[in-house]
Amino acid sequence: MGYANKPEQAVVGLETSKLHVKAVLLRDGELLCKVLENDMAGYRWLRSWLQKNDVAVTGLRVCMRLDAPHSDIAARSLALMGMQVCDAPPAALEQFARSNGLTGLGLGAALLARYAEAVQPPRWTPPPPAYLELRLWLQRLQAVQDVRRQEAARLDSHLQAGQQALHALLMEQIACLDQQIAQHEEVILAHIRRHPNLDKPPELAANHQRVARLAFSVEKATRL
Asked: Do 76 and 54 form a contact (C-beta atoms < 8 A)?
């Protein structure tokens, strides 16, 4: 008496960019690709597309690079839909590609799908809302600091060109940006005071060392 082979469990590799997500569905050795908007409408279309292909969405393993830009909202939204979002660290993904002769796939959605199928990485747990809010404040602080650096880089050129009025105006604008930066830093520190046990995003220490030092002082004082 013969037995039919059990179908392989479907997995999805998801590559994110600012405007789009590229999804690759891997099932029974076959790949299907879909490109959608990187917003809530796109995530709903992704769910509908999977369902039209007879894929059960609840518990479906979706593998992403959570360190990639524009991945946060997609990962959280798909997890809330019941999918099993998994992280693929770049070093592990590159090692997997080399070991399996898949270097031609880059680090995109197709490789993520094959990684998810072979490695079955653990489920990612969405961070609490307070963590996401902290990351948004840090991103906003970074944006203001970038504008300040750009304006400061123009100061010397205006001065050397004898553009005294422009130089004075730019100095005033930089002073306003400094006030905004200080306000953002205070809001971030107040947020950390309200959530003393909150994990700190990696960009806090990497890009905002002054705030990180102040945050450490806040935590130290809280523990005393």
From this structure: no
- Catalogue the E-assigned strands of 38-122: 61-64, 84-87
Amino acid at 82: G
Taking alpha carbons only, the member of 84, 83, 85 closest to residue 47 is 83
* Domain ranges, ordered by start, for the chain: 11-119, 129-223
**Helix axes of 209-223 and 164-194: crossing angle, nearest 10 degrees:** 30
Fold of 11-119: Nucleotidyltransferase; domain 5 (3.30.420)
Per-10-residue mean pLDDT, the chain, length 224: 52 95 94 96 97 95 92 93 94 91 79 94 91 90 94 83 86 95 93 88 80 73 59
**Pick from 183, 185, 154, 157: nearest CA to 170:** 154
Nearest residue to 129 via CA among 185, 194, 180, 65: 194
pLDDT value, residue 42: 96
How far from chain centre, in Å, is Cα 110?
A: 19
**CB-hemisphere CA count at 13 Å for 24?**
21
Whole-angstrom Cα distance, residue 65 to residue 57?
20
Tokens of 183: 């306000």
Rounded to two decimals, the pTM is 0.70
Per-residue confidence (pLDDT) for residue 8, from 0 to 100 = 60
What is the C-alpha to C-alpha distance for residues 55 and 23, in angstroms, rounded to an integer?
A: 13
